[in-house]
Queue: 2 jobs
Job 1
Amino acid sequence: MVAVSPFDVLNSLFFTDILRVIILGFLGFYAIFTIIIVRQVDLMSRILITPVSPIVRAFSIFHAGVAIGLVVLMYGFLR
Amino acid sequence: MFPAFVKHPQNFKFQGQDADEEIVLVIRAHPITNLAWIIPAVFIFLIPFFVPNFIQFINLDFPPLSPNFSLALLIINFLLVLVITFEGFLNWYFNVNILTNERLIDVDFSNILLNNQDIAMLSDIQEVSPSRAGLLGLIFDLGDVVVQTAGARVGIDMIKVPRPYEVADMILEQAEKAKETP
């Protein structure tokens, strides 16, 4: 009889499927969160007009772009 | 670039500023308060470097995940660091108090879904209470300034701002000027 380690479950198909859903779900929520950040930074940049505001706004858009890109990338990567 | 205490700032405006309204002071929480998110961010950043050694140290027979999943988890870890850092910075940068020659404005960015503004006219200011407490307050000269206005109108709290007594002096000075002006 072959001894089965409890850790073998980590490499089982079932476990990797669950992990895939968790990772993609996390990245999906993260992408939505970054879009909310973009909106909020946009509103705050209108309230406080400083030389730094456009930089912060640009970074928030870049951040959202990276997050959305990662969802697509990981969807293909984890198949 | 990101000062917490600026007198008569140049290149700084706010929504609703009158043409003849002059900004006297812009104040944020003391930069040292940012340690509250910097320390967790650094800790989370370092986790991937320590986890393999820790697993080895406790002699856990843990089979490695496939490289794709390991990379995905590593990316999630760094995304967490990124969001803690960015959110922490935004929380600090957009939580600002503005003292003008007409009013005192408290812009709050409590979290990503809530922002709030309290505005007190200088002529309504009744009492300004600065306080400095704790070891950090003593070392870095930071504390709270509570501004109370007439009646049940808005009260403004400035939390962990640098030089609280100087801030209180400046508010009172501007309030006196505003009351003298007809």
Job 2
Amino acid sequence: MELGLGLSIAGGALAVALAGMGSAIGIGTAGEAADGVLSEEPGKFGNLLILVALPGTQGIYGLVVAFLVMQKIGIIGGTVPEISAYQGLQMLFACLPIALTGLISAIHQGKVSAAGVGVIAKQPKAFMQSVIFATLVETYALFGLVASIFFLNGITL
Amino acid sequence: MSVVKMRKIRVIGLKEEKEKMIRQLQKSEFIHLKGFEEGTLDNYFSGHDPDSEERHIGEEIAHIESTISFLEQFNENKALVENFFPARVETDEKEFEKTVRNFSYQEIVKNVNDIKEKISKISEKISFLHNDIALLTPFKNLSWSPCEAKETQTTSSLFLKGPKEKHDSLINKLSEIDATCAEIISIDADFACLLLMYWKENDDEISSLLKEEGFETVNLSLCDKLPSNAIDSDKKQIASLLDEKEKLFRKIKQLLQYKDKLMMVHDWYLFRLQREKAKEHLCESQRTFVLQGWVRKDDMNKIKATLQSDFPSTHIENIDPDKGEFPPIEIKNPALVRPFQGITKLFGLPHFGEVDPSGFVAPFFFVFFGLCLTDVGYGFVLIALTLFAMKKIKVGVEGREFFRLFLLGGIATIFWGIVTGGWFGIEIAKLPQVLKMLILINPLDNLMKLFILALSFGVVHILLGIGVEMYEQLRSRNFADAFADQLSYLIILPGVILWIISKQGFLSPQFNQTALFIMLAGAGIMVAASLFKKGRNPLLNLLISLGGFIWKSKDFLGNILSYSRLMALGLATSIIALVINILAGIALEQLPYLGILLALFIIIVGHLFNIAINTLGAFVHTTRLQFVEFFSYFFQGGGEAFQPLSQESKYIISKVKRSPTSTCSDVTSERAGRRTGGR
């Protein structure tokens, strides 16, 4: 039982940590680029903020999955059920889709956002279009989220 | 839901009426000007000569603009929203014209520029003085003025500064050189400062030694006072300069009141510049000018009436477009669809002959947006915030439509919130009975239902996309293509879905047969119709159609699954809302007294953050579903926008809706007359 619980927690922790790391890196990349533009054109803050915030969603998705795990294993409000090692492994693997897609997609979304920052520096009108481009990357984190949610939903403890 | 019909016209008028007519056209926003192709006009006409006027206006605009942005920096009463949206000024025509006529902006611009220059000079001086202080500080204990350390015929003296840890070794090494005297003046955390006197004949040796130890000479020969006195006087000077700067700041703040007026004058010049630019499309003969361009078909009569009553000697005619020229595009929709036009425009206007997709975008955008948020509370907050923003932020027509998009989105969010039981993320078990009864889908218990709902919307959306494609094919009379490549899909795909549903056991097994029959019927249509396609060998056409279907099948699958994001986003919003409430609950339980405050803080900030980030997500992902999944079936876009000659402002927003026929009381011309020396 101890091992099962540990593995489940590892799953939730990986979801938050990896996806969050991705978001942190992504926002870092985009934010650096945005600061450069901001020094020249402070008036574009609003637009830049949106682009910089985009890679932040993966971290949120990770948190969503972690929360589902916590709920399932009764860490928040509830009794901890018996979790076998196999069930724990199931939980751990169920978390991997969002953890990995979150990590990688956020980093790359950050790069696309940073390029988008370059676009608004020159072509303010193309702002929304560059946001859409950045969103294309996020799709795969969303699919990861969908998969993780369904996996977790399917595991019976 | 349509593309506005356009006509191309040519207007020939008297040269002396040119200015007035262009102004009239600009006010009434009728015509999208087009230049003349080489050789389409008689030799009597020659192109418009650009004059220095345009450059002059451009310079004036740049001056005023830089003045405005400089003044903006000192605006302390700036609302928070103004950091996100550029400042604008609301005015009506009367006020605008009065301001333009009476306001002597040049004086203000000059004043501001003078002050700007003074401030930068003062800042320069201050930084110079700071440098001086930094230079002198290590020597402040000197009891004589540094300029007295002169060289004699045979000796030299130097002030030195270098790394603190090296000064011992330097002094040791110096002491080995004959008749050299080094004295420590000060040592602080990083640096040591020394005074060095030596025989000139040792010059080379000493300078190489200094280099080796990393010491530099400090030139203090200009300081003819005691360093401590010099520092004091520098400080005093800085204080008085700062004082002066403060006074200038106050002056600037007084000038800030003219900002709105400057904005109006700026836009007045901008309108003039736009007129000058419009003239580049004109051609002139000795006594006449000619212009051509596109107008809305519905405006034709109005244009003729207006122009011919004001300019009786003007000739207006309909002309054919140039070879390969397409009319510019304007889309027009009923009020409920209009907010969604912006989404279409984001992708690009339809090219000539294409359908305007805004009407299709509207219902799906509405539904999808709400599905991504699914919370009654969030819907209300979104509506409230939008209403607040509409009140606070001054925007033009398009901006208002954009806000309306979020109002509608808020309504959709409320609807889906009721259906899924989302009320500020409160656990469904804790909701009052009435609200529980309204819940149709409980997202966390009934994940599959929500998933299927999202995908079903995808199926409908995509089928509609294929349907529109079919309509376009029919309209351009490609009947066989429409039947083979669209109608057949529209039959087969529902058949496939029906088959899946009945196979899964949701329907009685006899539907299995029905579904197969439907699929076969669709395939039959595909085969039959593809044989009738134009061009090429019928068999080849058949193969192309079948191959195309197989190729596209994977797209259908991918596209439909892509709609699962609606479920994921909605779920993410509600789960994060739940997490926020749980955190607040923990704060409330664990911390006595202060817990309430902390819980309130978590709830307000947390939910606002959740709303902000998920509204952004809802907007971009919903938009993406339109662009990538929906539009790819039938819409290419890329049409040139109808941009009539008009008053495109940068700063001003008109308070009253401009009536296109309002004749301008001619202040503008008066001023123009004064500038150009009268007409």
